[in-house]
From TrEMBL:
It comes from Hanstruepera neustonica. SUPFAM superfamilies: P-loop containing nucleoside triphosphate hydrolases. It comes from the Bacteria. One of its GO terms (cellular component) is cytosol. Keywords: ATP-binding, DNA-binding, Helicase, Hydrolase, Isomerase, Nucleotide-binding. Its EC number is 5.6.2.4. GO terms for molecular function: 3'-5' DNA helicase activity; ATP binding; ATP hydrolysis activity; DNA binding. Residues 6-291 form the UvrD-like helicase ATP-binding domain. Gene3D superfamilies: 1.10.10.160, P-loop containing nucleotide triphosphate hydrolases, PCRA, domain 4. Pfam families: PcrA_UvrD_tudor, UvrD-helicase, UvrD_C. Residues 292-573 form the UvrD-like helicase C-terminal domain. This is DNA 3'-5' helicase. ATP binds at residues 27-34.
Amino acid sequence: MEKYLSQLNDAQLAPTLQKEGPMIVIAGAGSGKTRVLTYRIAYLMSQGVDAFNILALTFTNKAAREMKARIATIVGESEAKNLWMGTFHSVFAKILRFEADRLGYPSNFTIYDTQDSDKLIASIIKEMNLDKDVYKYKQIRSRISSYKNSLITVKAYFQNPELIEADAMARRPKMGEIYKNYVDRCFKAGVMDFDDLLLKTNELLTRFPDVLAKYQDKFRYILVDEYQDTNHSQYLIVRALSDRFQNICVVGDDAQSIYAFRGANINNILNFQRDYDDVKVFRLEQNYRSTKNIVNAANSIIDKNQTKLDKVVWTANDEGNKIIVNRSLTDGDEGRYVASSIFENKMQNQLQNSDFAVLYRTNAQSRAIEDALRKRDIPYRIYGGLSFYQRKEIKDVLSYLRLIINPADEEALKRVINFPARGIGQTTIDKLIVAANGYNRSIFEVMEHIDKLEININSGTRNKLQDFVTLIKSFQVLNQTANAFELADHVVKASGLIREFNKDATPEGVARMENIEELLNGIKDFVEGQKELADATASLAEFLEDVALATDLDADKGDSNNVALMTIHLAKGLEFPYVYIVGLEEDLFPSAMSMNTRSELEEERRLFYVALTRAEKQAYLTYALSRYRWGKLIDSEPSRFIEEIDDQYLDVITPIEERRFNPMLDADIFGDIEPNKIRFKKPVQPSFKKKGKPVEKLENKTVTTPKNLKPVTQTNSNTNLFDNKLAVGNIVEHMRFGKGEVIKIEGAGGDTKAEIKFDNGGVKKLLLRFAKLKVI
Ligand code: ATP
Ligand code: MG
């Protein structure tokens, strides 16, 4: 252990060696919070604390696995195995399974992913004859999710006039009823959704003091990583479990709280000292991850937020290169820039693909990047899209397996009852749903007893339904003796799935077959790993649970040599030598949906802070002047976040595409210089403004968009004045700066600029081609 403790600095050692009592480590990105948590667990174990008594909650299962592996190297494999480690959802799903009967759930309950929840909600809206344009299922789902995460049960909802009123005002007076139906249906189907895993844990711990006492006694030491992103439900669980021994250690960074939109409550970290007595507070200041340039730039960003704890972050690492800012004309050009830059970096610096990450605000942005990487033959992997387990063919197989474990599982049943086709139509299924609701039974039970029930279904169809019941029951019998792999292998054949997918000889069809094979391999691996478990049923249920809670980040074994593509939200806690943050444009990042209040904007800024602090050696910020969004090419302006970074940390370069059109840059003086290497000391963007420096000085004549370049954007006549006459004295409105008066116009055509004195006091010179001005 001594040897390992020497890998910590003094500030990190203090919380690591603090064995007892409530404690919080608040520190900036890359300062070793996760490392402290890991070493602290190893230290506790070396001090005689039993691994069974330690609970560690992480942000991803992958993080938990890595932490466990690290601890195993310190204290030994066999000891580390007994640690309870994982995400809130995966840890408490296990506990709920043990205690399910207390809450009236079967211990073989299955888990609905968001796709399943969406389908059930859509079905309920349809059954209730509601207008699906008013009652949008995705909105309803997120509303239900937020109720659950705030512990607002159906009963609590109907006792809260404010909530009822708010939904009525939002023209959704039936919201409460949908919520009730949804909860009833899930309960009847013996399933929990993701939010239930937390809500029901809370219910379990509050309603049953003996259960609470049992887990308080078990988890004598609790550690939570990324505490700033816990929601209310998670917060209450941690509080309840740690109440007896008060050995609670949380680590986090308020500046990296980025999940408020999903109910995370930054106050959990801010109020920690109020919640427990004698809290020890530790701060870490030294960043080990990034270069000085990156650390300082990140500091300068987060400085702009008003709501924050005072923190110091510095690094002894090298100065490093400046952050490269690149402008492209279109999102396609941006993708090509990123791909060629990765290519060059790889060649020049002997790097692996896995040394690079491309981070974006929204998943949709990955397409242009993917296209460009493919063209360059650079292998990449997208994280956080549709996970492997959510693909159609995989969900089909999993639905059969879910039905074997839990035949009441409504969404699993609906998915495969007529797939492969068995002549059971939607009308029949609708009738079964109505009957199931009427008899207060599951659909499967109705089908089992269809002979004795008065349902208007003809005898031919009744036979088909009974055949399906018989098929599932035969699988259940096999499940008594076969292991999960043997069972799954039989199911894909006997259900007709393989035959169905085999019919499709297109590349997509072949890929589907390969995916199914991959799934079977995965189940085989799982079975191998579970050999010591004699109970095959338990192992299939457990496999399904792992799968339901797996994200594709978890599936990454870390041995793949791919460029990583993911949203910034997903990148939290990770690190990469080279990081490209793309799409840094107003309305995209910060997102148009997050600019209504200061707190929303501050969350976007924290997101940018998280993004930049993932980089170890080199960060790139890129943006495009126009981009396809929702099928339309729209103009964009550089993100305010680029402007917010102190100039001294930036290196603004001119992209290759611009050079192509620029007579100055095409001149001989640049000879054979690689276009990507042409650097300009000063920012050149049309609306690139820096405090205290007039814009004119920053304009570099050699690189402004030349006149002969046709605008690549579709102009929107009332927002773009490229062709319009704008006169001195006009009052205009700018999306971001507000109202102002035109005081000067210069240039012509695509280069026309207007100097505008805005009501907020600022004077800005804007290139009309890109400024979204409205004359008023
Ligand atoms: P984040 O806020 O992004 O989650 P963090 O505070 O959890 O970051 P870690 O991921 O624990 O930081 O550490 C950042 C990097 O610095 C890791 O690569 C880690 O191994 C390294 N590191 C941390 N402490 C030390 C140390 N004392 N000596 C050497 N390297 C260290
Ligand atoms: Mg961390």
